[in-house]
Amino acid sequence: MTKTRWILAAAVLLVLPALAMAQPETPVEEWKGKTIMLVGAHPDDDSMSQGTLALLKANGNDIWIVLLTTGNVGTADPDMTRWELAKIRRQEEIDALADVGIPEDRYINLGYDDGMLEFQDEQEVVEKIVRLIRKIRPDVLFTFDPGPTYRRWHKSDHRAASYLTADATRVAMWRLLFEGQIIHEGLKEHRIPEFMFYDSPENNTWVDISKYAEAKARARTRYISQFGSGWDKYEGPTRTPEAQAAAEKDALQNMKKVDGKYVEGFRYYKGFPDSMGK
């Protein structure tokens, strides 16, 4: 064997263990009894994971949804106000979560303005996320992929949510950071052991959501202000039965399928937060 081939063979042997570790030891479809926390920027960002969330909820996992903005700017409707849109999008999110089995009391919104997340005080936002991590104490965190080995491009609020959440997961494990939460609020430091990054260009884990595809499709149709004609002229909060059936059919047709199964993809990572991008 030539020297080059020896080098390539050695490289493969080194890479294979890393690839194996990139997969959950227990398939996601079999996860039970875990506490799951999803962090996103807007009311509808969790729709990228709602098939998996429905599956996990049905399997007895405790699901928490944390969104950082009210979504009060995302519309092209000239007659819509920020106040009204914030209320509409809150109810859309609650209705969508109900479709995948997640109750309203597991939904938390930090109330920042849509489109302005990256201009907020970063320490304040991180401290709020850290407080929730220490209260909820998740076993797994879902969020936008901050990027493996590089800073992943996202539009502004998604980008800010990704990096702020990544920073918060690191801070939450150190008791001398935001120590007032521990001394005065009775919380304890917490390290999240597993991560499921959505909206990733480098998925290494695919979850079969076939049993929950219709629930995901139905949930997606709740975001009337965001998808379809409601973006330009809001006519919610409900559709005619015919329009609803057409919207659900369209949502189902646009879901990803692999080998005839509906799937959602993630970059799975297990380890210390400091190394989530390595």
Jot down its keywords:
single chain, 278 residues, alpha/beta, Rossmann fold, eight-stranded mixed sheet, 8 helices, globular, disordered N terminus
Structure description:
The chain is of the alpha/beta class and 278 residues long. It has one domain: Rossmann fold, CATH 3.40.50.10320. Helix content is 37%, strand content 17%. It has helices at 3-21, 50-58, 82-99, 122-136, 156-172, 180-183, 213-220, 241-253, and strands at residues 35-40, 62-69, 107-112, 140-144, 194-198, 205-208, 257-258, 261-270. Strands 1, 2, 3, 4, 5, 6, 7 and 8 form an eight-stranded mixed β-sheet that branches. β2, α3 (82-99) and β3 form a beta-alpha-beta unit. α7 (213-220) crosses α8. The longest helix has 19 residues, at 3-21. The model is unreliable at 3-21 (pLDDT under 50).
- In percent, how much strand structure appears in the residues? 15-25%
How far the N terminus sits from the C terminus, by CA atoms, comes to: 32 Å
Number of strands: 8
Biggest sheet layout:
8 strands, mixed
Overall geometry comes to globular
CATH superfamily: LmbE-like
Please state the second-level CATH architecture: 3-Layer(aba) Sandwich
Helical content class: 25-40%
At the fold tier of CATH, the topology name is: Rossmann fold
Number of helices: 8
| Low-pLDDT segments, ≥5 res | 3-21
Helix- and strand-based class?
Answer: alpha/beta
For the record, what CATH class applies? Alpha Beta
Q: What order do the helices and strands follow?
A: HEHEHEHEHHEEHHEE
Report the mean per-residue pLDDT as an integer. Answer: 91
The radius of gyration is: 20 Å
Number of domains: 1
